[in-house]
Amino acid sequence: MTIRWGIVTSGKISHDFVNAFNSFPDVGDQVIAAVAARDKSRAEEFAKTHKIAKVFASYDEMAMSSDIDVAYIGALNPDHFKLSKLFLECGKHVLCEKPLCMNYKETESLLSIAKSKNLFIMEAVWSRFAPSYMALEKEIQSGKLGDVQFVEVNFGVPIANVDRLRKKDLGGSAVLDIGIYTLQFAQFVFREEPVKVTAFGEINNDGVDVVDTIILEYSGNRRAVLNVNAKIRLWNKATVYGTKGRVTVEDPFHFPDTLIHNDGNVEKFSLHTSNQKYNFGNSAGLVYQALEVARCIKQGLNESPRMSHKESLLLAKLRDMVRKQVGVHFEVDDKEV
Ligand SMILES: NC(=O)C1=CN([C@@H]2O[C@H](COP(=O)(O)OP(=O)(O)OC[C@H]3O[C@@H](n4cnc5c(N)ncnc54)[C@H](OP(=O)(O)O)[C@@H]3O)[C@@H](O)[C@H]2O)C=CC1
Ligand SMILES: O=C1OC[C@@H](O)[C@H](O)[C@H]1O
């Protein structure tokens, strides 16, 4: 069974996703079959660049076609719910860029639509499929670190002036865009809902958070301190501390290629290099989530155990809690879904 992908939008991350896919040595029985954009000429240009066979004049046309099995949604945050819903209702599986939705309400509604249609959907938290994350999980579960007590993560990228980050109507929010990675890292380590969330930050003149400091408290007085910054570049690493030692996930922790173990051993994970031009760091790693999507679809799964619906719901809940404390409110928060 060939898995046929339909790329939704001709944007930067769509470019990176297709580049990562096409440059990977073996994607198995999968193909990038089609693309749709708001404007057909942009879709045609995208298709020409990436040698994609089919171009659709609109998202709706591709959703209704029988030419694709799964949609990759590379749209702006406010359109994730609407477009994922469109493709699900047309019987297509979905891989939607993070954040899956603007808030918990949308996330819950979208996941229940997928369940009712018996279709696969996943939030593209691509970090979870990094080979280095598999190694990190093994290290934590091995007991070498002892009992994990503390996690610290930094994610700072100077993107506060990018429209989709700084404008509320485009879904701008540091915690939605980059803070999600710090939250998912803490959840990857602790695997339980925090008992307390404390957050404070800085908002811009559009009411969008550009800096967030988040403290997650877990059972047994375990903690995570997350520094999120859309104004300046930070040393974007994550460290997991236990009673017997620590492991550091080097920059960029959100898709790392280096782990520094407690004994000082530096473990490297090479990404397939190619002459592709990417918009974002380590984007060659975007392919690993696509391999997982295909595996799950072929096994008839509705979700991936590595980035489950429960996890997406919890991440949405935590983002809502952070936004409330920092003072960021979206119009969509007042709407019934
Ligand atoms: N996984 C990762 O590493 C990354 C993930 N992302 C995520 O990907 C998504 C897109 O980010 P990115 O690719 O940088 O975004 P872009 O600025 O490239 O825009 C993506 C697409 O959104 C549509 N769009 C652009 N402006 C508007 C607008 N004003 N109103 C409505 N639609 C618009 C266009 O679709 P069309 O082509 O159809 O016209 C565009 O191609 C975000 O949700 C972000 O969180 C982003 C960067 C990295
Ligand atoms: O997902 C992402 O990762 C890298 C950031 O630069 C980008 O803004 C964000 O969307």
UniProtKB/TrEMBL annotation:
GO terms assigned for molecular function: D-xylose 1-dehydrogenase (NADP+) activity; nucleotide binding; trans-1,2-dihydrobenzene-1,2-diol dehydrogenase activity
Catalytic activity: D-xylose + NADP(+) = D-xylono-1,5-lactone + NADPH + H(+); (1R,2R)-1,2-dihydrobenzene-1,2-diol + NADP(+) = catechol + NADPH + H(+)
Protein known as: Trans-1,2-dihydrobenzene-1,2-diol dehydrogenase
E.C. number(s) listed in UniProt: 1.1.1.179, 1.3.1.20
Keywords (A to Z) from UniProt: Oxidoreductase
Keyword check for Oxidoreductase: yes
Pfam families membership: GFO_IDH_MocA, GFO_IDH_MocA_C3
